[in-house]
Design brief:
The protein has about 625 residues and is α+β, with helices and mostly antiparallel strands. The chain is built from ten helices and 36 strands. The strands form eight sheets. Strands 29-30-32-31-33-34-35-36 form an eight-stranded mixed β-sheet, sandwiched between helices. Strands 16, 17, 18, 19 and 20 form a five-stranded antiparallel β-sheet that branches.
């Protein structure tokens, strides 16, 4: 029996989604086990470490979370003996946990750490000290005897300065170290260099690089790294004489796809060299593909089920550990035997029910600046027949960043809507990664314009194709995505409602309040201050809130250091002054991104109720 869209009964409930969708945070081979990091929404988003042997390695209340560069990453690692090293969320000190013991600090109180890496019994990290002026960051080696816990001077500093650092890597003989470094005047996807230095010497050399990522040693004289001299991040190989180049960097298996994307966090790994000279690498063109690059440059796809935000987290012989999500599988961790292709899902990673979660459709529409890429998830419920005389409502998702991308992954959070008869359109607007540098740079100087053009074009294209009800289109986004939501509502004419999760509303306030990592981000997206101040005012949704004439739901974390509550509350007050239908919810204890199960449940249920109220249906929760 047909039922109106939006009213379909669904097995996807918010409380189940909050508890069943932990975030995987890295994976390691440890002895004959696999360990992985995993968020625990029921414990406020605590990051634990679990083992394939069935036990929890990092017990409560300990939580492995880094705040380096604000977004952290690389907050835990382990050695071959089963010793866990992790950054404790509360104090940002590095701790060691031996089997059967209790965590003990290895670093002094004060600085934050992230990007942990163990190589040949040596523990490397990125250190950030925000108490110094100017702020200082460094590539450090942490003594394993505990001497640095009481004496910070015992920490070995390999490189230090007021800029930013990532991806330390020791040469196989342990005499040299490579890393990525950038000044902060530009974002790392705009300009970042590979540095090499001798351990214990002052001979830092900068390799020819543009926006480099992840140096790895192929041998004592050869370094690999990803760089983007033209339109795509491509692997490069360079021979070294000591720390200096012994030739030019040569591309390794170039293609029309990216090995790398925006360096927001310190833990991502886009490739891993094998001991025999082959390389296992991720290639992204909208979706991800994992390939093996042979020594002669031949490329062989591995055919893995994961095709979204894939990270090659570890290697052991010819086995690699892969984390990510997929268009037909749940997020997970996979152990892959490179030669045979045998793939084992260690945790998660199982196929989803295609009747409830059909693979997203890739769509491309014409936009003001060129093609716009998106993934469409039509309503899907095998137990309900859609009405023949009605088009479905759609909610357009806008990802944050904005220098990021979505991959069309299967998601219970998306099925929460589609199973009830509400379609989802996930848009990779101009400025997104995953489609080449030219596509990403379409947003330069045009944030709040080009992104809005593209989400409007995508929504219109869906409606004009007869796939969505043009009168029941909503838009939803978080952080930078929330900015685009509100800018689109200011533009008007397409969306009948908007949902902003901790969205940016005031560019001048963002520039004044933002942290070091993004201090100059707006220079490229909008323009430098004070020269572009008039543009900052003109584009801000807060300035133009009197042009928003549709219902708005504002969801905000009370402890958000990136987009503080005052940003959402300014728009709330402007809407209230004009009598515009709106709801504002402030979540105590939440920061930039909702982590607790209680908040995740409440936000999803509020969104569904809001859409039902605006679009005229009553949906089951």
């Amino acid at each position: 029996m047909p039922q109106p869209f939006g009213t379909w009964p669904s097995p996807f409930h918010a409380v189940d989604i909050a508890g069943a969708a932990p975030r995987i945070d890295g994976a390691r081979f440890v002895r004959d086990e696999v360990w992985w990091g995993e968020s625990v929404p029921a414990e406020g988003g605590r990051i634990t470490v679990r083992s394939s042997a069935g036990h929890e390695v990092l017990p409560a209340p300990w939580s492995a979370r880094s705040r380096v560069h604000e977004y952290g990453g690389g907050a835990w690692t382990a050695d071959a003996h089963g010793i866990l090293y992790f950054v404790e969320a509360r104090d940002q000190r590095v701790h060691r946990l031996v089997p059967g013991g209790e965590p003990e600090p290895l670093t002094a109180a004060g600085p934050a750490h992230g990007g942990l890496r163990v190589q040949d019994g040596r523990l490397l990290a990125v250190r950030e000290d925000l108490t110094a002026e100017p702020h200082r960051r460094a590539i450090v080696e942490i003594p394993l005897d505990g001497s640095a816990a009481g004496d910070a001077a015992a920490t070995i500093v390999h490189a230090e300065g007021p800029g930013f650092f990532a991806h330390p890597a020791l040469s196989p003989d342990g005499t040299r170290i490579a890393w990525v470094q950038w000044s902060g005047e530009r974002m790392p996807w705009e300009s970042a260099q590979v540095h090499v230095a001798s351990v214990g010497a002052d001979d830092d050399a900068v390799l020819p690089s543009h926006a480099a990522l992840q140096p790895e040693w192929a041998d004592d004289r050869t370094l690999l790294y990803s760089d983007i001299p033209d339109d795509r991040w491509t692997l490069h190989r360079i021979a070294l004489d000591g720390v200096s180049p012994a030739g030019t960097a040569a591309p390794v298996g170039p293609s029309d796809a990216d090995t790398g994307y925006g360096l927001w966090v310190l833990g991502n790994r886009w490739y891993r060299p094998l001991a025999d000279g082959r390389i296992v690498a991720v290639r992204t063109n909208g979706r991800d593909e994992v390939v093996v690059i042979d020594r002669d440059g031949d490329i062989r796809p591995l055919g893995l089920p994961c095709d979204g935000h894939v990270s090659i987290d570890d290697v052991s012989g010819t086995r690699v550990l892969v984390t990510g999500n997929g268009s037909t599988v749940a997020p997970g961790v996979w152990s892959v035997e490179v030669d045979s292709g045998e793939t084992v899902a260690v945790v998660g990673g199982g196929p989803v029910d295609s009747a409830w979660m059909p693979a997203a459709m890739r769509i491309v529409v014409d936009g003001a600046s060129g093609p716009v890429h998106a993934f469409a998830y039509p309503p899907a419920n095998p137990e309900i027949a859609p009405p023949a005389d009605e088009l479905p409502p759609y909610i357009v998702f806008v990802h944050g960043g904005p220098t990021a991308h979505v991959t069309g992954a299967a998601s219970a959070a998306i099925s929460y809507y589609t199973s009830r008869g509400i379609g989802v359109l996930d848009v990779n607007y101009g400025g997104s990664t995953g489609y080449g540098r030219a596509y990403r740079e379409r947003l330069d100087g045009k944030w709040g314009i080009a992104d809005v053009d593209d989400v409007l074009a995508a929504a219109r294209g869906l409606a004009e194709a007869g796939l969505a009800d043009p009168d029941r289109l909503a838009i939803r986004g978080s952080s930078a995505g929330g900015w685009t939501v509100l800018c689109a509502l200011v533009r008007g004419g397409v969306f009948a409602a908007g949902i902003s999760r901790y969205g940016v509303t005031d560019l001048r306030a963002l520039a004044a309040d933002t942290h070091d990592f993004e201090k100059n981000y707006l220079d490229g997206l909008v323009g430098p201050l004070p020269e572009a101040e008039a543009v900052y005012v003109e584009r801000s949704p807060l300035t133009n809130a009197d042009r928003i004439d549709v219902p708005v739901l504002l969801l905000q974390g009370a402890d958000d250091p990136v987009v503080p509550p005052s940003q959402s509350e300014g728009v709330r007050d402007a809407l209230a002054a004009r009598g515009i239908d709106h709801e504002y919810v402030l979540y105590p204890g939440e920061g930039h991104g909702f982590r607790s199960a209680e908040t995740i449940v409440d936000a999803l249920e509020r969104e569904l109720g809001f859409l039902g109220r605006v679009f005229g249906f009553t949906s089951t929760r």
